[in-house]
Amino acid sequence: MSIPFNRPYLVGRELDNIAQAHTNGQLSGDGVFTRHCHTWLEQRIGTRKALLTHSCTAALEMAAILLDLQPGDEVIMPSFTFVSTANAFVLRGAVPVFVDIRPDTLNIDETLIESAITAHTRAICVVHYAGVACEMDTIMAIAARHGLKVVEDAAQAIFSSYKGRALGSIGDLAALSFHETKNVIAGEGGALLVNDPAMTERAEVIREKGTNRSKFFRGHVDKYTWVDIGSSYLPSELIAAFLAAQLEDADTITARRLAIWDHYHAWAAPLEARGLLRRPIIPPDCRHNAHMYHLLLNDLSTRTRFIESMKAEGIGVVFHYIPLHSSPAGRRYARTHGALQHTDAVSDRLVRLPMWVGLEPHQDHVMRIASDFLSGL
Ligand SMILES: *Cc1c(COP(=O)(O)O)cnc(C)c1O
User: Fold this and answer.
1) Is 128 in the pocket of ligand 1 (CB under 6 A)?
2) What is the pLDDT of residue 126?
3) I need a surface site. Which of 121, 148, 209, 346 has the fewest CB within 10 A?
4) At what angle do helices 341-349 and 300-312 cross, to 10 degrees?
5) DSSP secondary-structure letter at 281?
6) Minimum CA distance residue for ligand 1 atom 1
7) CA 236 to CA 170: how far, in whole Å?
8) pTM given for the model
9) How much distance in Å is there from the Cα of 204 to the middle of ligand 1?
10) CA 194 → CA 49, 63, 129, 150, distances in Å?
């Protein structure tokens, strides 16, 4: 039996919605389904403005434009993240400054941020790894003290919360992903969440190729013209139609993922007690969304053998990330602040187990095969 690492889940109404978009007579962006998704996200997450984009990468690029970053400006962020977190800012000529992660949540270590601030620092970009919140109270206080903006890379964090507040609603800007490997999907897709009211209007302009098209359609201006820099960041109505179906069933998706996560967590407890691995750690202030279940094995060679032995049984388990500070582009465009010892260590030891809605009947098999390997260590 072959069990993939990820399998995109359909709630069932996606294709009907796509047909409906065609019936509605608009396939380009910002139609009925797009507006529905915007309102849904605004109400659910408690953000001032939600704007669908064609990816989380695009939303991060919009954030970098909105922050008016100039060449040489610095953005503090973790190195243990997906490339887009850094690349979006590098496209503006800004310099990512990497600080280490906390060994428990694998999120940016908030105690290291302040010493990384220089005269060039403009923003902090946090990543809520595995949908577990960064220490946002501390981070927002540092930003306020130093006049910095905060961007939440909430690609993995839809419907997670920190002290009762939805992730994506705390920073000045946030980015969600609806890539097929995330919890709620549209194939490729994302959203920019704008919490700072001073940036909402410009966000619409940047997303619409630098034009005031949105204002024109609301009847606020009588000419539609080029007013600022921008690009085409909006997705087609087909994507929004697909996503609208997913959002309707979002709570079921989260609940089913959480049940799978809890099942893994209970299974891994005795293995952790035997010193064979470390389980994910969720701080008491954080409610997570079961985006992923990862294990920290004891060293790189154990992880390599684990992945091979699972693969031999047809089970997809994967690792990430190659730390950005040791990647070719990271070396060229970014710099580090201090030693990144936890980033390096975790990158060698972390492995992700299959996690998708529909895995339930196969999960015991995955755990049995994993136990066979781990018990032999
Ligand atoms: C998936 C992911 C992204 C990129 O999302 P896309 O929608 O594929 O552009 C960015 N940052 C993090 C942390 C991610 O996990």
Assistant:
1) no
2) 98
3) 209
4) 30
5) -
6) 155
7) 28
8) 0.98
9) 21
10) 5, 9, 20, 11
pLDDT computed for residue 167 by the predictor: 98
| Under 8 Å between Cβ of 322 and 347 | yes
Q: Is the beta carbon of 56 within 6 A of some atom in ligand 1? A: yes
State whether the beta carbon of 107 lies less than 6 angstroms from ligand 1: no
**Ligand 1 centre and the CA of 153: distance in Å?**
8
273 CA → ligand 1 middle, Å = 33
DSSP per-residue string spanning 186-242 = -SS-EEEEE-SGGGHHHHHHHHBTTB-HHHHHTTS-S---B-S---B-PPPHHHHHH
Q: Would you say 276 and 376 are in contact if contact means Cβ atoms under 8 Å apart? A: no
Name residue, tokens 């952790």: 272
Both structure tokens of 35: 């507006």
Q: What is the pLDDT of residue 217?
A: 86
- What structural domains and CATH numbers belong to the chain? 14-248 (3.40.640.10), 250-375 (3.90.1150.10)
| pLDDT attached to residue 266 | 98
Looking at residue 207, its pLDDT comes to: 98
- Residue 20: phi and psi, rounded to 5, are -65, -40
Pocket test for ligand 1, best of 6, 57, 320 (most atoms within 8 A of CB): 57
Residue 231 to residue 87: CA distance in whole angstroms: 16
Strand 149-153 with 173-177, pairing:
parallel
Ligand 1 mean position, distance from CA 375 (Å) = 34
What are 235's two structure tokens?
Answer: 């997705």
Give 298's Cβ-side CA count (13 Å radius): 8
The 10s digit of each residue's pLDDT in 166-207 is: 999 999 999 999 999 999 999 999 999 999 999 999 999 999
Determine if ligand 1 sits within 6 Å of the CB of residue 89.
no
